Amino acid sequence: MELIRKAVEQGKQAIAHISERRVAGADFDVIIIAATLAAKKGGLRYLTLEQEESIGGTTLHYPRQKIVMTAPMNLPLIGQVSVREISKEELMAL
Questions:
Q1: What is the helix, strand, coil percentage profile of the chain, to 5?
Q2: CA nearest 18: which of 38, 2, 1?
Q3: How far apart are the first and last CA of the chain?
Q4: Which of 65, 66, 70 is nearest to 1 (CA)?
Q5: What's the structural domain count of the chain?
Q6: Within 10 A of 73 (CB to CB), how many other CB atoms are there?
Q7: From first to last of its 94 residues, what are the pLDDT tens digits of the chain?
Q8: Overall pTM > 0.85
Q9: Domain residues for 49?
């Protein structure tokens, strides 16, 4: 259940590190596989690549109505998500 919160935190840390090492004149500051919200919040020029036709990555393939978070977390640009439990579908909609 902590996987999503941990992934978000690691994505924020990676983008913070990249923000400190920007290269002038590059087409993009970062090419993103994940962490799009953190890059947008950091004001970086970015390109998000998704394996799927729609956003969601791994979460997209979770079983229907699977509980994917059990504790509040802070999402870049969205802020505090204070629900105690959120299903795959609710998280994807957010």
A1: 35, 20, 45
A2: 38
A3: 17
A4: 70
A5: 1
A6: 17
A7: 466 777 778 888 888 888 888 888 888 888 776 678 888 888 988 888 766 666 666 666 667 777 666 677 777 777 887 776 777 777 777 7
A8: no
A9: 3-93
